[in-house]
Amino acid sequence: MATTLHPIVYWAQTEDNISLKVDLRDTSDPDIDVTAEGLYFKAFGVGAGGLHEYEFQMDFYRNVNPDRSAYRVMDRAVEFNLTKDGPALFWPRLTRDDPKPAWLRIDFDKWKSEDDSDEEDEEDVVKKEQEEQMRQIEKELLETKEQAFADLKTVYLFFFNLLQFIGYAYVVVYLFCRYAFYGKENMKEAFDRAIIPLGICQMFAFLEILHPLIGLVKTGIMAPLMQVLGRNVLLFLVILPNPEVQSDPMVCYLFLVWSSVEVFRYPFYMAGVIDYSSEVLTWLRYTVWIPLYPLGFFSEAIVIFLSIPFYDDTGKFSLSLPNQYNISFYFPYWLYAHIAIIVCLAPSLISHMWRQRQRRFRPKKPRTFHVKLN
User: Is the peptide bond before 99 cis (omega within 30 degrees of 0)?
Assistant: First the structure.
């Protein structure tokens, strides 16, 4: 069972208010509930443990007023401003239980205790102002550096998705027009025209495995790993070395299915990079795959099956005894195993896409606070 990760939470208080700062960057899908007695928080973001889902719950030392409290989700943190309920006084601690959790810390920048002196020496005031100015300069420099990296990341991801879209769109338009005007005539020529842009796009698709690993995107790694490796193994190890299957119409059908999925996926990613929301693109991204994914898995299995006689007759990629390694390998057996892998993994990938679709189109909870009545 996965261990629940807690974000670092900083707190401070005045006589009337409690301020909380959840140290979680790039927060998404927040589930927040503030009641008079406590706070529940759950969200996906980058915290002390990296890119994960974080969660915590706390019971306040005294009650707060949810109707006069608020929070805001920012790029670098989630901040709460909670209004104390009842007479104005300082709390000895934030939570009802003692000792406090290890992930709860004091925000010294905002902390004010009831023993704070109302008068400070002029020298101390100047010193604090200088320290505050230095902190502000350091903060601005850090934000400038982070903004420059964010801008560079935006430009790179936008043009990466744009070039991938152009490549796959060319394959879709070319193969569709060829089928419309020439039918199944001279499929080898159609293959030769489509393989170059498709092969280039599939090679660059390996970067989609690298992007989540280095934090450029927030998506998981398993889905792109399964899709990119599955397609490229089939393309570069099964189809390209087999001249006989290249003239079969099923190969171009497979290319058309692959590319049709991508011409809707990459524009959706491009829009997301520049924070542009389109209901049409979103619906197409999470709907078009429903007929195309099963058709793609079926076409992949058929193409592999059609390739088996060639590798059986030629012995290509097979290794027979005797040899210097003293091992044998029969490539057609691996092709049969590849078909079995497609049959086993296809439901998992389809289920993953279906969960993404449900999560995308489920009704969003309004960001309001509700008092739970016992």
Answer: yes
